[in-house]
Specification:
The chain is mainly α. It has 9 helices and no strands.
């Protein structure tokens, strides 16, 4: 998704509705794929993808261009996917009693390893956000969005050493949370 042509199109889209339409059509497949890295159900990934596209359309005009558009987009994708997950979790918690939730827990015999591990990771990230919020965003940008340490340092306006340390701390904490 990172290329000069995309960056140019994004800059044009900030002022031109026709360019905005081209930009949204261009990024949609990649945004959906990245949302799918977080959310195991396609419908949930599609919901998060639509949120991302709406946020890009609504906020591109005020984007300050301190970082690349693609880096900004990664941040929006991860925030929207996590927000969608939290929203789905809250809805299911309100909808069912604790006994019903236990009965609805995914059966490991019928749940794919990938889907189950994504849910476990999302739960771990949610817990980590409470305990060590400063390490969550660097971890997501590195291990899920697969940005380089330099790109993350630029996005977070932090030294590379700090970013590496935060990613390391997050990995250790998540390993402990996952058991």
């Amino acid at each position: 998704m990172v290329d000069d042509e995309l960056e140019t199109l994004a800059a044009e889209a900030a002022a031109d509705p026709a360019a905005m339409d081209r930009l949204l059509r261009r990024i949609e497949p990649e945004v959906l794929r990245r949302c799918g890295r977080f959310l195991p159900c396609r419908q949930d990934a599609e919901e998060a993808c639509q949120d991302v596209l709406l946020k890009v359309a609504a906020n591109l005009a005020v984007f300050e261009w301190r970082s690349k558009f693609s880096t900004w987009l990664h941040t929006i994708v991860s925030n929207s996917a996590l927000s969608t997950y939290r929203s789905l979790k809250r809805r299911s918690d309100k909808q069912f009693s604790s006994d019903e939730l236990i009965a609805l827990k995914p059966d490991p015999r019928t749940t794919s390893v990938i889907a189950g591990s994504r849910l476990d990771l999302l739960d771990a990230l949610e817990k980590l956000e409470t305990a060590k919020p400063q390490v969550v965003r660097p971890f997501i940008l590195r291990d899920i969005s697969q940005l380089t340490y330099a790109e993350i340092a630029d996005e977070l306006e932090a030294p590379i050493g700090t970013v590496k340390s935060q990613v390391h701390d997050a990995r250790q904490a998540i390993q402990e949370l996952l058991g």
